[in-house]
Amino acid sequence: MKTILKHIVFGIAFCSSILGYSQEKLVKGYRIEGDEVVFTFDKKDYEKITSDKYQFTDDFNDFKIHDVIVSGQFNNWTRDAWKMHRIDENVFELRKKITDFTDEFSWEFKFLVNGKFWAEPNNEIANVVPAKTDDGSLLPVYNLKLYTAYQDQNGNACFRLKGYKDAKEVILAGSFNKWDENHFKMDKTENGWELSLQINPGIYEYRYIVDGQWMTDPGNPNKARNEFDDYNSVIDITKSVTFHLKGFTDAKKVILAGSFNDWSEKAYKMKKTDMGWTYKVWLSGGKHHYKFIIDNEWLVDPDNPVKEYDEYGNINSVVMVK
């Protein structure tokens, strides 16, 4: 099925200005560029390396580096799979798609040098945390934060807050980044503040933090009560899904019915093509059940092997929107 991402909701639309991504200066080991995580190793950032049995503390500057591996929770602490590419004498990089990571998470990782030496990051770096080793001792590791959303100037959701020109800082926080109060700093514009994100399909809640004060989005009337007896703004990120039914060209009418349209037998009339029938619909994230109605006869999708029983014992085809 062909899919296209789209998001339209009141005060949120595509940003017209070019937005750059910036992280805190002391965040090291990786950066986010568009839809990629860029792991970066710079020999000059390290004074100490360790192995499983002993430590080197004085001679790392003269240490000959042949290869560097990114090793962490996201790849079962591999010692050979995620090999970095040499940029110059001291710098290595490895690019991975954000979609390569299974889910939103905080991942621990380190850099493995020459297959057996761990580069030990400085504890003063903002995203360095202590982790227990097998013998119970503590060693520093990098923390990589990934969410269902990331900053992208061509993203599918642009958040705009009009006014508040005298504010020093505006933060966007929501369920798509676990309500992080620092991660998504909005950019100041002539009309107020804005930030463009790429967000996985789904329904999310969010708020703005204007100079430390939390507020709902005044441009979005969709709200949900929160645990503080206040309200969060709500957005629904949808994705375009095109359904295809091959054959049945002799049929007079084919209807697409599913959980997304309350199993309507009239609403989604499919379009006839040379190869069969097709229909495009915008769906929220998650699981959806559906069937085709061919001249009043119900049929599961013959080209989709994924099927499930519903609560009434009917077998339906299943489409997952992510």
**Number of helical runs?**
0
Secondary-structure element series: EEEEEEEEEEEEEEEEEEEEEEEEEEEEE
CATH hierarchy, class of the largest domain: Mainly Beta
CATH superfamily of the largest domain: Immunoglobulins
Describe the structure.
- The protein folds into three domains: about 5-20 and about 160-235, Sandwich (Immunoglobulin-like), CATH 2.60.40; about 30-145, Immunoglobulin-like, CATH 2.60.40.10; about 240-320, Immunoglobulin-like, CATH 2.60.40.
- The protein has about 325 residues and is an all-beta fold.
- It is built from no helices and 29 strands.
- Residues about 1-25 have low confidence and may be disordered.
- A hairpin with a 2-residue loop joins strand 19 (about 200-210) and strand 20 (about 215).
- The strands form five sheets. Strands 1, 15, 16, 19, 20, 21, 22, 24 and 25 form a nine-stranded antiparallel β-sheet that branches. Strands 4, 5, 6, 9, 10, 11 and 12 form a seven-stranded antiparallel β-sheet that branches.
- About 0% of the residues lie in helices and about 50% in strands.
Topology (elements, then pairings):
Blueprint: E1 3-6, E2 30-33, E3 36-42, E4 49-50, E5 55-56, E6 68-72, E7 85-86, E8 91-97, E9 105-113, E10 117-119, E11 128-132, E12 138-146, E13 149-151, E14 157-162, E15 170-174, E16 184-185, E17 187-188, E18 192-199, E19 202-210, E20 213-215, E21 223-225, E22 231-246, E23 254-258, E24 271-272, E25 276-284, E26 286-294, E27 297-299, E28 307-309, E29 315-321
Antiparallel strand pairs: 1-22, 2-3, 3-8, 4-5, 4-10, 6-9, 7-8, 9-10, 9-12, 11-12, 13-18, 14-18, 15-16, 15-19, 17-18, 19-20, 19-22, 21-22, 22-25, 23-26, 24-25, 26-27, 26-29, 28-29
